[in-house]
User: What shape does this take?
Amino acid sequence: MKKILLATAAFLGVAGSAGASVIPSLTSVTASPTTPIEWLWSYQGTLSGDAGLTNGSKLVIFDFKGYVPGSIFSPYANVIATTQDVTTGLLTVPGFVDDPTLPNLVFTYNGPDFDSAHGPFPSIDFNGLSAKSIYGGMQAGVFAALTVKNNPDGTPGGTGTAIFDTGSITVPFASGVPESATWALMIMGFGGVGGMLRRRKATAAVV
Assistant: This one.
């Protein structure tokens, strides 16, 4: 694959800001035919054109409840998928308290610099990041991502400046009924997806 990447507003939520460098989303929750049932949680997202990856760039999805050991997966050779129970050495989210009893999904880029300078470039979609949970219910969770700026203009800083993104993303919950916070994210998420599609359509028309 020419463009190898990682990273992750959710299918039922929205990223932290409109100018985020990484916009992750939940694409599906699929039940296995086994007993007991295990649920495959699949994520996709977009890496914005003004952001690139360097060795150590990463995406963290916090507090993935009911995680099935060994089930985390990345389809990209240069993105290592692991779990960690505490945030030592991980990205942290201001105001969020990581539950040390729940594993965090960690996707770490360990390849050569990718679109890390001379940008901006076209935004890139990624998909296939996944993990299994014993739960199929949904609730609002938190993600954090670390990338680097690839052009000299804008905020924050210039080329090589670290970009730290945080936002909401849907994670497993023991109940099959979404929490009230998730319902609110669903409404915002549908609006955000519609806005993204309108912007992409407008961009394509200009091109």
